[in-house]
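Q: What does the assembled structure look like for these inputs?
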Amino acid sequence: EADIYQTPRYLVIGTGKKITLECSQTMGHDKMYWYQQDPGMELHLIHYSYGVNSTEKGDLSSESTVSRIRTEHFPLTLESARPSHTSQYLCASTRRPPPVGGLAKNIQYFGAGTRLSVL
Amino acid sequence: GDSVTQMEGPVTLSEEAFLTINCTYTATGYPSLFWYVQYPGEGLQLLLKATKADDKGSNKGFEATYRKETTSFHLEKGSVQVSDSAVYFCALWRYSSASKIIFGSGTRLSIRP
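A:
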């Protein structure tokens, strides 16, 4: 059973508001990820982190920003929400992969997601 | 670069029908392969995995075999249930400095009673 939590589950907010989507995991995982999932279901990686004070942009450009001050916490912030930000946001985490030659078990654990609607 | 291509949906079947969702991949070396499932209103969860050629992953009646010669990892189930209605994602991971999982575009499965 994975212990990764996202809040809020649903958020409806007006244009121009600042929002923060929370993601926390209690598994001590080094790596964390944010995905944006469009209505067609496809997942787009927008941010990831290898550990504390490490953040990287993903494959899809996003106006959001992330921070990683603590291992267990990886919040995503939108400074000024717009209707084009309406989407489902999924957070995930995984442990550091083993050295080359070891078993490859890079399993990602996902939170339940935040469905964001910007009016 | 690495990529995953999976069968487009939606797929609609009757209960107790046989299911196949095709997945092929492109990657150098020997990636690990996964199937994830997303039930309505939830995040993704791992369904099964295989870490080397000819491995068979299985869980909840679903199976997939890692076929390196055809670069495929097709998902199968002999008799589907209404509760199997969900979105299924094929994915791969290959050890590298980037170490990101590559997901397919997802296949929506609907089972009729």
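The radius of gyration of chain B is 14 Å.
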